[in-house]
Amino acid sequence: MKKKIVVSIVGARPQFIKAAIVSKKLLLLKVKHLLVHTGQHYDFDMSDIFFQELDISDPDFHLGVGSGNHGEQTGRMLIEIEKVLLKEKPSLVIVYGDTNTTIAGSLASVKLKIPVAHVEAGLRSFKKYMPEEINRVVTDHVSELLFAPTDTAVENLKKESIVKNVYNTGDVMFDIALEIEKKVRSRELNILGKYKLERKNYVLATIHREDNTNIEKNLCSIIEALEQVTRDGMKVFFPVHPRTKRYIQEYGYLQPVVNDNLILNDPVSYREMIALEKSARVILTDSGGVQKEAYFFRTPAVIPRAETEWLEIVNAGWNIVTGADTEKIVEGIERLWGESHMMNWQSFYGDGDASGKISRIVKEYITSG
User: Fold this and answer.
1) Which residues neighbour 298 within 8 Å (Cβ) at sequence distance 6 or greater?
2) Residue 49 above 70 pLDDT?
């Protein structure tokens, strides 16, 4: 009898990170697992160093889809993913998060009557105009196994009448952050020294979302906020995403902003990013992944978005949602800079074994079917 196969479909850096730890746990349970990379993201964050740091094997299939408009990119993914699924005939497909890769992997699978497991099920921004919201809602409604990272995510699914095979496993990103944190602990001071930073005495900034990069007014407001806090004496370390850098240059904002307190840098490795998140006093980020990682390490964050899926952290006071508003961003950073030591921390995201729980449920599902 042919051994049952589980396929993970990924296309962006956070998805590789999540799939890496799930894959390790599946292999420990002797479950055959194949990794399909759609090629949705194919620039700096798919470097050899990235794969080495997380001990990720090369993808079994690289589809090379690349960038494009949402419909064009998703359509090409559907075509190429279907070819892989027809060839391998997996017992289950795992998708992660809320990207175009997520929705393409889900639709290609269910149309071939292959069950889908969704890691990070139940997240909602309640903004239907966001492509990510459409991706996650549709994926949840076609998935057979739903792995929710929080109680809030479980409740969101219940409100949409999704109650079968819903599991609150905790967040796999918490597993990974704890694992990587152990590896960087001894090198933390070296990493800070490399960038001339002092522990708990700088702001870490990451900006990459289209709403903030492609809209000139929004990016200008964020840059002005960073300029203002550096004038007030705070040091800001800003590893600049390639898209963000392109638009900063296009809009001509670099020259008036750069000063001794604002350190612009190329994107850093994942291990370095973990060390920088852990040691920052405050983080400014529009990344959902960085937002959570900041909380894992008890670092407060300002979120220059109109909304966030991680409401638990906001309600607990560790995050302030400001939108791309200069005054609100500055106020948020200054407030958290002074109050970070006073806040209580709760374990919203599980016990650090989400990947183990997911892999055990997956094995039971494919062996019982």
Assistant:
1) 340, 345
2) no
